[in-house]
Amino acid sequence: MSASLALEDPYPTRLDHAIAPIPRQDPTVWGSATDGPLDQDHLDRMSAQGYLIRPDTVADDQLPSLRHELDRIAADLEPGDPRVIREPGGSIRSIFEPHLLSELVAEVVRLDTVLPVARQLLGSDVYIHQARINLMPGFTGTGFYWHSDFETWHAEDGMPAIRAVSCSIALTHNYPYNGSLMVIPGSHQTFYPCVGATPEDNHDTSLVVQSIGVPDETTLTKAVDQHGIDQFTGPPGSALWFDANLLHGSGSNITPLPRSNIFLVFNSVENKLEEPYAAPRRRPEYLAARCATSVT
């Protein structure tokens, strides 16, 4: 990237030296209470905390078939399919593009409890930037270190503005002790630049263990001291909506209770990907869709 383009980047990261955190320059909520199912109280909470928990996003009678569908997808994919990310021990950690592999998952994207919420929060038509199934089997499921998704999507995918939102839908019970997602509420209002250049094909390792594009321990300590930590727990069918810049992570699952979630990332059609801001080349399409076709 040229120096002139770097100077225009409002969210510089992957630097060779530490710089101060940067106040967010984009809204968290782009729509209004008249634009969708969320009332003003929900929108205000999303703006302040950076996340919302929505119960009953997927109906109880849909859950068994979706859980069965996860098994089918995993069984049908070739062992070397790059969309399958495995734990160091060999168990499946994530499967990307499930909405293109399963009509049942594609139907979840279009649910009245999902798509209208995404459009309202982003104030526009939306498309799927990334989708995956996250599996955390009992005893062997490892966690995800603290990070902001936008930091990666900006640096490695060329997402220009913080105008994307994630929806993590529980397919199994998310308990406090089986690796449920933790968030730092309010951290979405600050962009935390990270130190360290992006390696070639960083996604080959970062999807298993992320070490580049994560805040240092001092930064994380200050963020937690200021905001605290919340956790997404709840029954199957509930959903966590969270802002692309919210710091989040999860611990490993050492219980016998598996945890699985459908993870959908909606991006505004007005926030199309550009060239990566801080990476040698684009990531594959299954990690960062560049065909910004509105979900209808």
Keywords:
9 helices, Jelly Rolls, 25% helix, disordered N terminus, alpha+beta, 296 residues, 4-stranded antiparallel beta sheet, globular, 7-stranded antiparallel beta sheet, 20% strand
Characterization of the model:
- By secondary structure, this protein is of the alpha+beta class.
- The chain has nine helices and 13 strands.
- It has one domain: Sandwich (Jelly Rolls), CATH 2.60.120.
- The chain has helices spanning 3-8, 40-49, 63-76, 98-101, 103-109, 115-122, 149-157, 203-206, 217-227, and strands at 22-23, 51-54, 84-86, 92-96, 126-136, 144-147, 164-170, 182-183, 190-191, 230-231, 239-243, 248-250, 259-268.
- The strands form three sheets. The chain has a seven-stranded antiparallel sheet with strand order 2-11-7-13-5-4-3.
- Strand 3 and strand 4 (92-96) form a beta hairpin.
- Residues 1-7 have low confidence and may be disordered.
Q: Layout of SSEs?
A:
Layout (H helix, E strand, L loop, with lengths): L2 H6 L13 E2 L16 H10 L1 E4 L8 H14 L7 E3 L5 E5 L1 H4 L1 H7 L5 H8 L3 E11 L7 E4 L1 H9 L6 E7 L11 E2 L6 E2 L11 H4 L10 H11 L2 E2 L7 E5 L4 E3 L8 E10 L28
Antiparallel strand pairs: 1-9, 2-11, 3-4, 4-5, 5-13, 6-12, 7-11, 7-13, 8-10, 8-12
